[in-house]
């Protein structure tokens, strides 16, 4: 089974492309979704996060206040790394488990939707690395307009990630999403053919 890494800076449209690939019938392992699942009420990862970042992050219903955790964790490089040190090993293990399940199910390929694929050097473990590329200013605009982040928060999150030139240098395929949404379809169609030929 081939592993296809799909990545892009925050706000690039990576999730949009992942949905399109899922619609094409590919199994998508979504690292962000796993990151949420490992912090469900009562999980050991959530307990550790609460110990480090504050017990008040967990509401009476046991749910994590993700927005507040993001504010605290992304406040500095050190605190970001602290959070990553707790969550990344758990995300990695669950991702591997899902790859194995896809292989067991006889999938020809699996898509790994992973924002930090290049930041963490995981692209080297993929058979194909796909980067969704959008200029930083446009990404910030989309995060503000469509996700309701304020500009400073959007820029801070962009700054926490690997820079665009490093990410693009790791790409086997670049999907250019600077244009309108309907410009994605032909690029995704070409990508689908490429994946099938792996
Ligand atoms: P990511 O997963 O890379 O953070 P998303 O796929 O969530 O990014 O896209 C960020 C936002 O921008 C979403 O609201 C999405 O609908 C929107 N978006 C994606 N591609 C385009 C595009 N080409 N033009 C305008 N908006 C877009």
Structure commentary:
The protein is of the alpha/beta class and 198 residues long. The protein has a single domain (2-193), classed as 3-Layer(aba) Sandwich (Rossmann fold). The chain contains 9 helices and 5 strands; from the N terminus they run βαβααααββαααβα. Strands 2-3-1-4-5 form a 5-stranded parallel beta sheet, sandwiched between helices. α3 runs antiparallel to α5 (77-104) and α6 (136-147) crosses α7. The longest helix is centred in the middle third of the chain and has 28 residues, at 77-104. The protein is globular, with a radius of gyration of 17 Å. The protein starts with a strand and ends with a helix. The mean pLDDT is 96. The site of adenosine-5'-diphosphate (ADP) has 14 residues, from α1 and α6. Residues 8, 10-16, 142, 146-147, 177, 180-181 line the site of adenosine-5'-diphosphate.
Fill in the keyword field for this structure.
198 residues; alpha/beta; Rossmann fold; five-stranded parallel sheet; 53% helix; 13% strand; globular; binds adenosine-5'-diphosphate; kinase; transferase; cytoplasm; Depp_CoAkinase
Q: How many helical elements?
A: 9
Low-confidence stretches: none
Which class in CATH terms? Alpha Beta
Please give the alpha-carbon distance between the first and last residues.
9 Å
Q: Please name the CATH topology.
A: Rossmann fold
* Principal-axis shape: globular
Total beta strand runs: 5
Average pLDDT score? 96
Structural class: alpha/beta
Number of domains: 1
Q: Could you give a short account of the major beta sheet? A: 5 strands, parallel
Radius of gyration: 17 Å
CATH arch. level architecture = 3-Layer(aba) Sandwich
Main sheet: which strands, in order across? Answer: 2-3-1-4-5
| Proportion of helical residues | 40-55%
Beta fraction: 5-15%
Order of secondary-structure elements: EHEHHHHEEHHHEH
Q: What hetero molecules are bound to the protein chains?
A: adenosine-5'-diphosphate
The CATH superfamily label reads P-loop containing nucleotide triphosphate hydrolases
Catalytic activity: 3'-dephospho-CoA + ATP = ADP + CoA + H(+)
EC number: 2.7.1.24
Binding site for ATP: 11-16
Function: Catalyzes the phosphorylation of the 3'-hydroxyl group of dephosphocoenzyme A to form coenzyme A.
